[in-house]
């Protein structure tokens, strides 16, 4: 199974306080462990939402809204895609997230991805009418 | 900004925001699947598409909250439906404006409507001296190893 680990934003990531040397080192070491275990698929950090935009579709008409966006703690600061045998195994990886990140105060959301098998007959998905 | 491999390009994460239907695990209609398939094909042909996936409803996910030594696991589903992620693309584009133009061409992501959030990705070049030559070399090695495992798709 594949999982997306979503590093939720906070005031620091939204302010683009660049990571300290120690944090960069800790994250690189963590990523290295994921790669060596064959678990790592991809990962990246996002720039603050101030540099982003939203496109809202209403009745087929797109409206562009420039960042920054409110609800800081609901925003995304970065993501890591991993392969794991179960949600439990993914959670074990998450629990080893470097404690230097966010000075030990972060929230990581773990979300399973849809796989091809979910769309096959008898798969987990129902089709909307 | 510049990229090590190509000049004047950047990567963005395009986040498909969730709604009640995606959180209920409802599949898109056949019409939307077809339209999305065509849109994805355009993205691939233009060399914009790097990756894209759908996420299962947050009821199948969890959050881990870190506070000092404590690790608290919170089961989904999570509130604030419209702030959640239902899917994403990673695109390579020349500018934010180009990304916005592509996003506007997307079929209504949730059928009747929907919302996309476009967020530029931090590249190694964005880091200053915190990213030492050693860390940079390690990052490059990790990326190369990943690319190799994916069968050199990138």
Distinct helical segment count of chain B: 4
Q: How helix-rich are the residues of chain A, as a percent range?
A: 10-25%
Most extensive chain interface and residues per partner: A-B, 69 and 70 residues
Tally of DSSP β-strands of chain B = 7
Assess the beta-strand content of chain B as a share of residues. Answer: 25-35%
Q: Flag low-confidence runs of chain A.
A: none
Count of distinct strands of chain A: 7
* Biggest sheet, spatial arrangement of strands of chain B: 3-6-1-7
What does this structure look like?
By secondary structure, chain A is of the alpha+beta class. Chain A has helices at residues 11-14, 21-36, 87-95, and strands at residues 2-8, 40-45, 53-58, 61-66, 76-83, 107-112, 126-127. In chain A, the strands form two sheets. Chain A has a four-stranded antiparallel sheet with strand order 2-5-1-6, covered by helices on one side. In chain A, a hairpin with a 2-residue loop joins β3 (53-58) and β4 (61-66). The longest helix of chain A is centred in the N-terminal third of the chain and has 16 residues, at 21-36. Chain A is flat. With 154 residues, chain B is an alpha+beta fold. At the A-B interface, β1, α2, β2, β3 and β5 of A face β1, β2, β3, β4 and β6 of B.
């Amino acid at each position: 199974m594949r999982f997306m680990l979503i590093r939720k934003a906070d005031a620091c990531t939204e302010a683009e306080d660049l990571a300290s040397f120690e944090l960069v080192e800790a994250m690189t070491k963590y990523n290295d462990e994921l790669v060596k275990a064959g678990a790592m698929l991809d990962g990246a950090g996002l720039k603050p939402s101030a540099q982003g935009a939203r496109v809202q579709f209403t009745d087929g008409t797109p409206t562009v809204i420039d960042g920054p966006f409110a609800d800081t703690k609901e925003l995304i600061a970065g993501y890591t895609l991993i392969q794991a045998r179960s949600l439990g195994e993914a959670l074990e990886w998450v629990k080893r997230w470097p404690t230097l990140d966010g000075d030990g105060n972060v929230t990581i959301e773990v979300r399973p991805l849809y796989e091809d098998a979910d769309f096959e007959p008898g798969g987990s998905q129902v089709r909307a009418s | 900004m510049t990229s090590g491999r190509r000049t004047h390009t950047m990567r963005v994460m395009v986040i498909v925001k969730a709604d009640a239907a995606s959180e209920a695990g409802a599949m898109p209609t056949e019409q939307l699947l077809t339209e999305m398939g065509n849109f994805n094909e355009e993205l691939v042909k233009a060399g914009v598409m790097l990756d894209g996936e759908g996420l299962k409803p947050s009821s199948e996910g969890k959050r881990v909250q870190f506070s000092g030594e404590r690790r608290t696991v919170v089961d989904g589903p999570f509130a604030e439906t419209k702030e959640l992620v239902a899917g994403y693309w990673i695109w390579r584009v020349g500018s934010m404006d180009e990304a916005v133009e592509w996003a506007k061409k997307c079929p209504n992501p949730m059928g009747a409507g929907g919302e996309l959030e476009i967020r530029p990705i931090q590249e190694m070049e964005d880091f200053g001296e915190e990213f030492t030559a050693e860390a940079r070399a390690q990052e490059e090695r990790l990326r190369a190893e990943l690319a190799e495992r994916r069968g050199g798709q990138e």
